[in-house]
Amino acid sequence: MNKIYLIAKRELQTFFDSLSAYIILILFLGFSGFFTWMYGANIFFIGQASLSAFFSIAYWSLFFFIPAITMKMIAEERRMGTIELTLTKSITDREFVLGKAAASLSLIIIALLFTIPYVITLANIGNIDFGGIMCGYVALVLMSASYVSIGIFASSISKNQIVAFLISLSIGIFFHIIFGMLASGSIGFTGELFNYLSMSSHFESMSRGVVDSKDLIYFFSLMVLSLYFAELNLSRRLLPNN
Length: 242
What we know:
By secondary structure, the protein is mostly helical. The protein has one domain (2-234). The chain has helices spanning 2-17, 20-37, 43-46, 52-70, 75-80, 83-86, 93-113, 116-125, 130-157, 161-184, 188-197, 199-207, 213-234. It is globular and about 55 Å long. The chain starts with a helix and ends in an 8-residue tail after the last helix. The relative contact order is 0.13.
């Protein structure tokens, strides 16, 4: 656990030593703030003390930001040849993968913490459902953790960051959009299967304040499988042509 923490701390420090963390934070807060408070279905327009508009915007903006955060995590180390040096320091592949994932998720959680003033502002405007808002934030964290895991897997496949970004985004599109579209056009078991695979069905359920075990199983299964495949891919690094 200590090694995972050290890897995550190092990566998070690297984010803030460069401009990448600040750019991502500014863009995320700019998008979410503008569309939540000033444009379209904003809070003042609908006249309700609700963060549903923010959760909807964050659901889409994080979908695009997360691949940008994770694309360099392993791909860059493979390109520079530092991954072998790192993994010879009594660090297992699993610790390496978990540390990278923890750093990426930590950056997203920091971004979400900067939106706490939204809740404080709403509390001063009217009565709000703190339980529902808490569930909405938990849903965003679980969704982010799932896409971070997919991004780490994509980054373990290629030495090129752009390729890793595109792979992560392509896989994510299935969970974010395509499975939902297939579910709406299917019936019976097939429809239920596609609906279960759709990220939106689980996210919307939790963001409404309903915490169901099937939603938690979905998110954690996606995380575990993605990180396992990333670890498995790393274990093949010593094979010829890898």
